[in-house]
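Session log. Operator J.P. requested a structure for one protein chain; no other inputs attached. Running the standard single-chain path with token output.
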Amino acid sequence: LALPDQLASILRTRFLRHAVSLRPHQGALARASHYLAFALEEEFFWAGSSGSRTTPAQHELLRGVALLAEHLHELPPGVEAFLLRYLRLWDGRASVAADVFAALQWLRPQAYEDVYIHVLKPLNRLFLSGSAPFRAQLIQCITCMLRNWCDVDWKKVLARREEGAPSGPRQPYELYAPVDPAINHYATMREIMAFADQLGALALQAERNHPLVQHAVLSFFEFACTMHTAHQLPFVFPPSTAIVYRCFLAGSAFGVSRLCGVFARYREEFDRLKAAGDQVLATQTLSFQNGLDRISTFNSFILDMCNALWRNLVYTKHRDAQESLGFALPSELEEALRFTDMNYALSLTHSAAFAPLAWRFLHGLEQRLSSARQVELHPKMIRDRFKFDFLEYLKKRGFVGLYNFLFTFIRFTRRANPST
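Structure written below.
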């Protein structure tokens, strides 16, 4: 891989990308990095690219760079320098957005100040004026970038910083140079997650809970709720209040179920982090709270969701009412909104998200029981043993997160026998 044509063939040939990633040669990698940086700058900055349309050559080059980074598990330094410069000038055109985000997710771990100035700040400018698909793509890009960073064994990096230990076997993002142990990478990931949380809340509000944005936000937290158990990071980052209630009240059954599944997994995250708390603090000192301080807020989310979905107590004063975050109404407002079925408004049987599924369940139940007389179907008919049957009905149709949530956080004293 010495001549320009040979270097360009890496972008076109999957076999060569595999060969370079499996048997890396520092000289060839350095030449490839310089060649790609020159080719990108020539195509995007010099070759008459002032128009708003993306040329086929530009698209092919960016796509090839993204595929190469996927095989190398990092961006070549020259390509990364080009992307950081290009982001300041990029107008967010959709024709190259997928390729830009596919390459950016392999950005090397670095200090948050650098990530914010060179990556997040330019992208935030485009995010504010972007469409729902663009906003969803950006959140998914941040999710993938953090997931890739979690592949690094951060305990070894921390030991290298504190003890001056040798680098040992090559890790992800160390093809060109070792990961800098002097940077507080835990704080960087924590700050990026907080930034993504804010982007998600803003996008849900601006796009009125668009399904694409919901999917991106929930995918982010489906990854975040496993960072301690799956990747041994010494902290937990639960979603903010704006994210929780936006997704819960969006009127989407899939959104509610996935949110419930996220909370069921966060329960395990908190339990394991508390169990390993002393050991984690002794070996990995953090410059920020590890997330256990959010347990009281987390419990309030759980209480509100259980009262709304299952107990039908969402707007009823009870002994835990002071713990509610989203549904604690002032007394004068309760008087003005006194309706007979008010507490069923967000329930598993009456809410806008699940009412169509409840009707289908009742209709199928009516046919299965072969009733001789016609009965007017009503969601309140789903109670006692039929309520558990409805829960099983939802589980079979993919609402596993909702099922796991209810059986994780609600103590059923006695389950009725399922109907036959």
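Operator note: The chain has a mean pLDDT of 86.
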